[in-house]
Amino acid sequence: MATDLSSASTEVTAKAKPAGANDTKASRREVKVPKGTRDFDPLQMAIREKVFGIVTGVFKRHGGVALDTPVFELKETLMGKYGEDSKLIYDLADQGGELSSLRYDLTVPFARYLATKKLTSMRRYHIAKVYRRDNPARGRYREFYQCDFDIAGQYESMVPDFEILKVLAEILDKLNIGDYEVKLNHRRLLDGMLELCGVPAEKFRTICSAIDKLDKLAWEDVRKEMVLDKGLTEDVADKIGSLVKMRGKPMELLDELMKEDSPFCGNAASQQALAELKQLFTFMDVGKCINRFVFDLSLARGLDYYTGVIFEAVFTGTVKMGSIAAGGRYDDLVGMFSGVQVPSVGMSLGIERVFAIMEGQAGQLTVRKTQTQVLVLGIGKSLWNVAIGIASELWELEIATEFRCVAPGKIKKQLSDASEKDGIPWVVLVGQDELNQGIVKLRDMAAKQEEEVRRDNLAADLQSRICACAALKGLTI
Amino acid sequence: MATDLSSASTEVTAKAKPAGANDTKASRREVKVPKGTRDFDPLQMAIREKVFGIVTGVFKRHGGVALDTPVFELKETLMGKYGEDSKLIYDLADQGGELSSLRYDLTVPFARYLATKKLTSMRRYHIAKVYRRDNPARGRYREFYQCDFDIAGQYESMVPDFEILKVLAEILDKLNIGDYEVKLNHRRLLDGMLELCGVPAEKFRTICSAIDKLDKLAWEDVRKEMVLDKGLTEDVADKIGSLVKMRGKPMELLDELMKEDSPFCGNAASQQALAELKQLFTFMDVGKCINRFVFDLSLARGLDYYTGVIFEAVFTGTVKMGSIAAGGRYDDLVGMFSGVQVPSVGMSLGIERVFAIMEGQAGQLTVRKTQTQVLVLGIGKSLWNVAIGIASELWELEIATEFRCVAPGKIKKQLSDASEKDGIPWVVLVGQDELNQGIVKLRDMAAKQEEEVRRDNLAADLQSRICACAALKGLTI
């Protein structure tokens, strides 16, 4: 789903702001990444891995299979899919041969994949970076992750739509980073509404784009755009204004809109959309996720390719930030490539904002950058070979091990680094005097205790200690 | 490390050849990926995940921390690093603002990262795609994975070099896809050799490029290039020819080259390199990996930035293919960005060739595309809600579940798909008659047996069955 998920501009993102933001102060000799991009350092990578683990877990538990596509597509593949946002597409230079562009989202490559392989059904997930030439000054990244889950194929009405929404709610629950709500609407209900208000059919998409700005602009500004820029009469704009204000609990608002005195009564497109929503809300009620959703007639979504249910998730708790996930049904996109219609529905999670929140909480987390269990210290040059021999025995047993060769005076520094910076639980101290007796010292870093262990039994000994420790902690090595 | 790791052109890669190879036959309306790129379908993704799991496991057990960098870098960051191969760099179009290029390898971005963050030591791994505008007609991918592990910082001589080689040997052993050997040489030994043979210093790098072609070209062709294109006398070329033929077990050849009657005797650069190699080979002997290595004076490596030990791994068994991994020491690269020298050594594994071999073996593997444990079938439209309710209970317990709503006549097809295509172990059949008695049917797909289970106890019942099953198999859900 193409959506505004690239931003991570909240109060918690000070650390993570894009390179280039300090350009004016930066010295000329500074070595930088391109504007709007960033490196992920080891602590951020540990958080990223954790988040992806949660997300992938939910995707897999819903029968999702993984897919990956090239980072760039033929330019013609991306053309005509993103409406006004197409100007943000990154092109590769013409170095002879085909014209290509970096992917703008993961939905169009998925549809292109189905068309390429002539597939008519698939339940796939894809976690990868996408690229948009947006304005880094507004806190937007130009390279950012999306986590997509889509169900393509012929199914009973609203069954896959329900499952996509269930997947989204499960992920946001499990990420456990704040209260959220998912706004939900239906493209054909929106079309029916515009028809009822007297908007000509050829202006539906551009008026949708205007309505879509209601989460950032006041109604007065949107009304101005409709009247001055897009040529609606004031009367028509005001009719739209009265309807897009409607929002509420899904079943309650739906019942109201289905009443005989509802403005939607008698409009065929709207009636079909309302009947579909009734089925969907029933499934969501049974699936115990409907309390996360708000039926909101102002939700429009800017993209051209949506054809049915549309939705967008936002945080509502102490952390205020824009859209964190979005998606909808797009029944005609695959057919734009292959001529064969493959009805599809999907969601896209903009994980940068989740990272931003988690990085803000990282002080409270105990995230280790390495998994190292044992540090072997060879004390003095003559003992390097012994330290390497011990480390090699431990690697053979698949025990995460580092070794250092240090001068006798530097042991203290190594021990404090191992304990404070790296959180390594065990240190083996290899000294000549002990070795002459066939032993080494083993230090338990948490207990701050040392004991002597036979050199020839060291690897087996450490293995059983580490296993016992892991068992105690429930296998979280 | 920049190296020729993009190719996967062996006898096992027929399935995986790049898009575009069939261009002449393809119809005009075909929807394609750009030339030299490819999609990874779910089966390939399952293999990829398995391979990355093995590789990451070894990296982490050696204290590696993860790093990720943007897929494109400022063009100036990549300039002057890749010698003659710079022509293969992909540029982004100039759409206003900075000029950027897709990364060509992971080594230069790592060095740039250290310079950007002013770090002087790091032990990092990075698994990501890199981009080269190579010729797809030669079976080369233009987008392919590299798995890099590098150790930057001041250490005792040859200690990190040993560990990089140990990591490489561990990975190739654990991948278990065929016999291999790692060719090893030293850039300063090579320089000493060229000096001894009478090559002028300004021609060292270009003569190295010629020597580097010896794994693909006969000596006669390389000699011709040296004499005709690069202006060496025949006498000098022949001296080089006699030396680059030398190869053998590391310690044995080293002892020979260190003898008093060796041609390298008295050449200072060579003597220092030989002393370093002696220390390295001692560590490798203690670390029990030296038997994987061959000391080979013809190994030159094309890139500009190597300054010490260099190496390259090739398969030697029934699977014959080119370089699968390569790397070396590059002490000056970080300083090219920051002015601060940060000695570094690293390896890069070209995983596409590993994928190609594993995909060739995939027939023998039992790789499931999904992890689905339970399929819930609601039989008839009136039971959809019940099926969705059951599935939601199972998701709540983190049991991987799919559900389908099917007409009574289509159960057989669903069961055979579940068993043969998807390998799902359990199917719940929800029918109205059973449900009236408070039960559903549970089918054990392996045993081909059905039993009746109480609806209100179903989720707990399935959970204990799946746990018992997982315990039996040693937790491989």
Automatic annotation (TrEMBL), chains A, B:
Q: Which PANTHER family match?
A: HISTIDINE--TRNA LIGASE, HISTIDYL-TRNA SYNTHETASE
Species source reads Adiantum capillus-veneris
* Entry binding sites for L-histidine: D105, L106, T107, R132, Q146, D150, R301, Y305, Y306
Q: Name one GO cellular component term.
A: mitochondrion
| Coiled coil regions, renumbered to chain | none
- What are the alphabetically sorted keywords of the record? ATP-binding, Ligase, Nucleotide-binding, Protein biosynthesis
Q: Which residues form the Aminoacyl-transfer RNA synthetases class-II family profile domain?
A: 28-408
Q: Which Gene3D superfamilies does this entry report, sorted A to Z?
A: Anticodon-binding domain (3.40.50.800), Bira Bifunctional Protein, Domain 2 (3.30.930.10)
EC identifiers of the protein = 6.1.1.21
What family is this? Belongs to the class-II aminoacyl-tRNA synthetase family.
Q: What is the lineage of its organism?
A: Eukaryota, Viridiplantae, Streptophyta, Embryophyta, Tracheophyta
Disordered: annotated span:
1-32
**Does Hydrolase appear among the keywords?**
no
Name this protein carries in UniProt = Histidine--tRNA ligase, cytoplasmic
- Primary enzyme class: ligase
Task: Give GO MF terms, alphabetically.
Answer: ATP binding; histidine-tRNA ligase activity; RNA binding
Compositional bias (Polar residues) spans? 1-12
Write down the InterPro entries for this protein, in alphabetical order: aa-tRNA-synth_II, aa-tRNA-synth_II/BPL/LPL, Anticodon-bd, Anticodon-bd_dom_sf, His-tRNA-ligase, HisRS-like_core, HisRS/HisZ
Q: What catalytic reaction does the record list?
A: tRNA(His) + L-histidine + ATP = L-histidyl-tRNA(His) + AMP + diphosphate + H(+)
Task: Name its GO BP terms in alphabetical order.
Answer: histidyl-tRNA aminoacylation; mitochondrial translation
